[in-house]
């Protein structure tokens, strides 16, 4: 399953990065706030499902596109929902759609991001118990995807979201985790660095880390996602390291 709650520190009104990690398994004051979720819907047609890695990368870019959209900041139409979402636990839920389901999802306010084979639509945050009916009826399970061929090596000059090599995650779960990693990197960047990344189209790769490198990645000062443990994996597990060139020490 990809219902993926985590606990954040609220982002300040200026949208500047926050000093404390927003991803931790322990309950805190953010649990007392109204809870919101960022919905993502991946298009999975029976005859032509996307590749797993492309779906993960497209989901991560979709989160970044939502964060960087002018409607999500300042007085934008989605800004209040984005602030409310970030004041509680950071939750992302990935659901799947095909055919008429996908067309109904596309009719709702949101942004569709397209990869090589994947299409992911991201929507402004909604209350945890207040999903639009055309999204609420979509399935969370069934997002298992494969790569027809092993993905090429990651470009060392571009951002890489490294997955924990010791964890097994469904594609939906991994898509949400990749989105978390991208969001952490975004928060850590300066305004100029964010603008440069956005203007370049948010290039990034999602790859499984070499087991021999994983400890170094998690202890090297890069943003690390630690899962709340509500689905699939143990609480506190390190799932993703966000390796953006601008954040390397």
Defining traits:
4-stranded mixed sheet, 7 helices, alpha+beta, 6-stranded mixed sheet, 29% helix, 249 residues
Description:
The chain is of the alpha+beta class. Helix content is 29%, strand content 18%. It is built from 7 helices and 10 strands. It has helices at 52-68, 79-87, 99-106, 133-136, 171-188, 191-199, 211-218; strands at residues 4-5, 36-43, 91-97, 111-114, 119-122, 126-127, 160-163, 205-208, 224-226, 238-243. Strands 1, 2, 3, 4, 5 and 6 form a 6-stranded mixed β-sheet that branches. A 4-stranded mixed β-sheet has the order 8-7-10-9. Helix 1 (52-68) packs parallel to helix 5 (171-188). The longest helix has 18 residues, at 171-188. The N and C termini lie far apart (35 Å).
What layout of secondary structure does this protein have?
Elements: E1 4-5, E2 36-43, H1 52-68, H2 79-87, E3 91-97, H3 99-106, E4 111-114, E5 119-122, E6 126-127, H4 133-136, E7 160-163, H5 171-188, H6 191-199, E8 205-208, H7 211-218, E9 224-226, E10 238-243
Parallel strand pairs: 2-3, 7-8
Antiparallel strand pairs: 1-3, 2-5, 2-6, 4-5, 7-10, 9-10
Helix pairs in contact: 1-5
